[in-house]
Amino acid sequence: MMMKKPLKTLRATALAALQAVAWGAALASPALAADKIAVVVKSLGNGFFDAVNQGAQEAAKEIKNIEIIYTGPAKSTAEGQIEIINALISQKVAAIVISANDPDALAPSLKRAMGRGIKVLSFDSGVRKDGRMMHLSPSSNALIGEKLVQLTQQAIGDSGEIAVVSSTAQATNQNIWIEEIRKVLARPAYKGLKLVSVAYGDDQIDKSYRETQGLFKSYPNLKAIIAPTTIGVAAAAKAVQDEKKVGSVYVTGLGLPSEMAGHVKNGAVKSFAIWNPIDLGYSSIQAASQLIAGKFTGKPGDKVSLGRVGSVVLDANSEAAMAEPFTYDASNVEKFAKIF
Ligand code: RAM
User: Fold this and answer.
1) Which residue is closest in CA terms to ligand 1's atom 1?
2) For ligand 1, what atom is nearest to the CA of residue 47?
3) How many domains does the chain have?
4) How far is ligand 1, taken at its centre, from the CA of residue 320, in Å?
5) Which of 140, 144, 223, 295 minimizes the number of CB atoms within 10 Å of its CB?
6) Is residue 5 domain-resident?
7) Range(s) of the domain holding residue 242
8) Do 179 and 130 belong together in one domain?
9) Residues 65 and 100 grouped into a single domain
10) Do 230 and 47 contact (CB within 8 A), yes or no?
């Protein structure tokens, strides 16, 4: 005679089986346990950061088990970024990778994030030392300053008035680069180049354009504009073209080949520079994932692998630079315009 299993036992067996399936699924599909890494940019709608996001997604695909939350305020302000950071703390992301609109203003909320176990890394535009675990610069600041002054001299020769069209007045990266530009201009070799003004376009196309027009009015002898911002450099070049100043005012700076190819063609720009923004996004996520995994903590001397980009060692300020800036002109801009 067959013994019937009591109903209770049957239920328990079925439950156990279901649980085993659920655990099996959890083990088999790591997507369930994906670490969330938030990439907080200065502002949305900037082609430079779109390229950074592309690289971040590439890294996430390669590392696996990572979900990128790409976010940023509508305008490049610290207040907008602080709101986002606070929301990310509540969401319990594993890491925040941020390009800062202000080195100091973000530090308190990022410290709070770190206090909750969130790994914080600044990239592109830094947060002051106590507000992040490490900073990844795209390139050596001194090298960027030097390159931009060299390109200016190549465009206009040894003398003339020059102006800077920057992003926001608090941007960590642009302010450091402007300082480096000033240092290079102080050298005897550049004594004929005179920096007459620094204008702020806030990484908005229309404001950068209007600020450039203002410079033309205030400085009728202006010969060059250096814009160490991808938005500013494209807007300044457009103003030069529209105001029929091609040939009398030259624009250089840090630009995206895809946004600058037309300006190189029409002569407003002879050459400009930039590093690979896709690689910068990729490298930042590589570094963040190792912080999450506890492979390093952000101490001076720590070695950080940047995946296919190579590796860097953190300096005394827990900072490192990714690569050298690359120069673009009529000979190569079209080719790179297809990439970023
Ligand atoms: C703008 C941003 C960014 C900077 C580039 C060069 O897109 O200000 O921070 O690195 O330009």
Assistant:
1) 229
2) 7
3) 2
4) 18
5) 295
6) no
7) 141-274
8) no
9) yes
10) yes
Pocket of ligand 1 (CB under 6 A): 42, 46, 48, 99, 124-125, 167, 173, 203, 229-231, 254
Domain identity same for 164 and 259: yes
Ligand 1, atom 8, lies closest to the CA of 229
pLDDT tops 70 at residue 312: yes
Residue identifier of the C-alpha nearest atom 4 of ligand 1: 229
Confidence tier at 32 by pLDDT (50, 70, 90): low
Probe residue for ligand 1, chosen from 39, 41, 46 as the CB with the greatest number of ligand atoms within 8 Å: 46
Residue ID of nearest Cα to ligand 1 atom 5: 229
Q: Long-range contacts: 286-291, Cβ < 8 Å, 24+?
A: 286/59, 286/63, 287/121, 287/134, 287/136, 288/37, 288/95, 288/97, 288/119, 288/121, 289/35, 289/37, 289/59, 289/63, 289/66, 289/95, 291/95, 291/119, 291/121, 291/133, 291/134
316-337 confidence digits (pLDDT tens): 999 999 999 999 999 999 999 9
In a domain, 335, yes or no: no
CATH code for the domain of 225: 3.40.50.2300
Residue 15 lies in a domain: no
Residue 94 in any domain: the answer is yes
| Centre of ligand 1 from the C-alpha of residue 29, in Å | 38
